[in-house]
């Protein structure tokens, strides 16, 4: 299957974009410290001509945000967090869903009740569900601080948990169909154990679908992250910083990790005055989703080809 | 049949209750107790859930359904036009829409909002209000925004279904009888495609509900999703059920309808 994938141009292009974004982002810090914050632009005679945020025409290629931080650097730096979270959580979701549905299939014969129960998640958007679970976490962290690493882990667990039930429903349906096939029944009558059947027969059959679902889950998580950014729920938590002079102090939530949705959420109030700060990270979300979609269509080509055989 | 729906509804209600207790399960009771059961919070103030919720529910559903219908209309028109085009152009259009499909909903919402404001600043022409002010409700712009992504998805689905349908034997029979391509598409193929579209109703609904939520948040519309975000406990359960009960009924009906359709088809095939 992997050999076939390497022959799909769509898959390769998508894969290349994602991997290069990741590598540039991971390697960036060791080579380059990042540009200095620029808060003012001066005219030739030394007077101030412009104040941050600068548009992409003032400071190419992407401009800066209100604190004068270079958006291009922030995007590249943040790519690793966003992409790794999306891919990692998608992976965790799939692995745990497959394990659960193997265990759960062995125990329950009639799973309509569970399926109907999971139907209820249709009516609560994943964003609201995640928000509900993460806000108490933030409130808790104000009274007794949670370390950055622990925060990220807890949030990833929450993101994982949200997606598991519907995946379990899909998998247990698939497994049930496979287990009812004739050759499985004959394998069983030859004395094979369930574990052996799962490993040798069921897993290879759902493998192409696993790849497909992995990519789809990654897209869903990327969109979920963008939404959470707008709601000012940042992965990695946020610090409260005081801004303005002493007459007009405002508390501002500053995301700790430089993740894309953090950039969006941090500057969301400026959507009409400086739209590029929001649109450029969203554009990168678009690029990542597009490349994952390309990978999906490459995968689908192979799956339909193999079926025709 | 009705008892099956009753059972399903009961499990959905249990599911919603479980969801509403999740935060308490993780983080203890004390944080969740702060709110009265019949209230929702908005901008730091508490409002009573009833009778506000009826009005907000109607408002959100108007936007959702209007957007769905408009999106469906757009998708079908584009599909129909593209069937009349040559094959190579069709492929280009399809590829273009595949690219558009990757656009995050937020991106579309913000691009439209920013461009309307920019047009207003430049020319003084206000295409539509982009934010709710006090009690006046806006319809045009949210509906337009919400309809774009479903239109793209529906286009892709109908296009694929249509191509599949075009290869079926009855189309060839109709062609050999001398009917024109346009006639066959409108009178026979489109009808069958519409029936198959029902299979995707759940996916489209989930997708649109999530879009509706972020739309309400960005445009500052006070609809049912805003309430859902700002409630806890009992009030949350009630709000979700407001959405869940009518739609689960609708899905049940659709499921039964498509089942009957399939039975019909099987009988015809036999």
From TrEMBL, chain A:
Membrane-traversing stretches: 12-32, 81-104, 116-139, 151-171, 210-235, 276-299
Record domain ABC transmembrane type-1: where: 79-290
InterPro entries per the UniProt record, alphabetical: MetI-like, MetI-like_sf
Membrane topology: Multi-pass membrane protein
Subcellular location: Cell membrane; Membrane
Keyword Transport: yes
Coiled coil: none
Predominant place of localization: membrane
Keyword vocabulary terms for this entry: Membrane, Transmembrane, Transmembrane helix, Transport
Pfam families: BPD_transp_1 (PF00528)
Gene3D superfamilies from the UniProt entry: MetI-like
Recorded family membership: Belongs to the binding-protein-dependent transport system permease family.
The protein's name: ABC transporter permease subunit
Species classification: Bacteria, Bacillati, Bacillota, Bacilli, Bacillales
Automatic annotation (TrEMBL), chain B:
Entry membrane topology: Multi-pass membrane protein
Transmembrane segments: 12-29, 57-81, 102-120, 140-162, 204-228, 234-254
Cellular localization per UniProt: Cell membrane
Domain of life according to the entry: Bacteria
Residue span(s) of domain ABC transmembrane type-1: 68-257
CDD domains in UniProt: TM_PBP2
Main location: membrane
Pfam family, any one: BPD_transp_1
Keyword set, alphabetical order: Cell membrane, Membrane, Transmembrane, Transmembrane helix, Transport
SUPFAM superfamilies attached to this UniProt entry: MetI-like
PANTHER family xrefs: ABC-TYPE DIPEPTIDE_OLIGOPEPTIDE TRANSPORT SYSTEM, PERMEASE COMPONENT, INNER MEMBRANE ABC TRANSPORTER
UniProt-recorded name of the protein: ABC transporter permease subunit
Organism: Fictibacillus norfolkensis
